Amino acid sequence: MNPMPKIYVAGHRGMVGSAIVRRLLAGGVAQDAILTRTHAELDLTDQAAVRAFFRSERPDQVYLAAARVGGIHANNTYPADFIYDNLMIEANVIDAAFRQGVRRLLLLGSSCIYPKLAPQPMKESALLTGTLEPTNEPYAIAKIAGIKLCESYNRQYGASHGVDYRSVMPTNLYGPGDNYHPENSHVIPGLLRRFHEAREQGAPQVVIWGSGTPRREFLYVDDMAAASVHVMNLDAEDYRKHTEPMLSHINVGYGDDLTILELAQLVARTVGYGGRIELDPGKPDGTPRKLMDSARLRSLGWQPRVDLAEGLRLAYADFLKAHRT
């Protein structure tokens, strides 16, 4: 590493990427040491363009937070886009990083990599032990491929080239910079928008998808950014002590979960909506439960700081800001 490393944050306009930039700046990294490119400036699915960028800029560290993401509806509607775009982004960035001598790279994945019926809480070792949740299988397979890319480059080039590529698997994330699209958003931003609009319109009820019984874990995005920077900068020997041989990924979760109905009730209180909450059991539930086992990361010195109630207040404030503009 150079005394003043150049750090490339791929996906810096997204919720996670922007939080990583905030965390780096708060930690003393100079603004001009952080490399960013918009999609218009650099299409990460274009191999030639990605290789040219790495040859020109020669970053020392890479945070790969760029991805095509969305909720159940988006995953069901655009499966080809989800698998193709994410496979291409990962393959292009990871290989270009290696070709230009980048020794430390962090891939951001997703808890959907684990089997639909994985034992709870889900350990890193549950990967590839069962069938994936069908609604987001294309996206999950792309993220699993990214993990295996990191592991494979470590196996083949770790000893000879000092390659140390890692992956973090976050639970469901939310917070500033989220996507509040009425159809293509994740559960928390989608609920925030729907309850806000219901309150504004005086609607007597809000209908939520599914039975309301699936349990989900949620992590505030700035906690995820702190975990990402923490994992990126861990000493290699310390990191290996807490991971299985050649296992590049590590879980990042809050450590507690709640049902979708309980979440909806909490969002309604946060927004100030006083109407009824109705369930639509004809819509898909997805995985029955997704709780991460984050014991490894906690043993490495990271802890979440923002609880769900406070995080929802911050997220709603961000929604109101985005809603006004």
UniProtKB/TrEMBL annotation:
Top-level taxon of the source organism: Bacteria
Binding, NADP(+): 11-17, 108-111, 143, 170-173, 186
Any coiled-coil regions, as ranges: none
The enzyme's E.C. designation: 1.1.1.271
Family matches, as Pfam families: Epimerase
Keywords, alphabetical: Isomerase, Multifunctional enzyme, NADP, Oxidoreductase
Role: Catalyzes the two-step NADP-dependent conversion of GDP-4-dehydro-6-deoxy-D-mannose to GDP-fucose, involving an epimerase and a reductase reaction.
PANTHER family documented for this protein: GDP-L-FUCOSE SYNTHASE
Designated name of the protein: GDP-L-fucose synthase
Classification of source organism: Bacteria, Pseudomonadati, Pseudomonadota, Betaproteobacteria, Burkholderiales
Gene transcribed to yield this protein: fcl
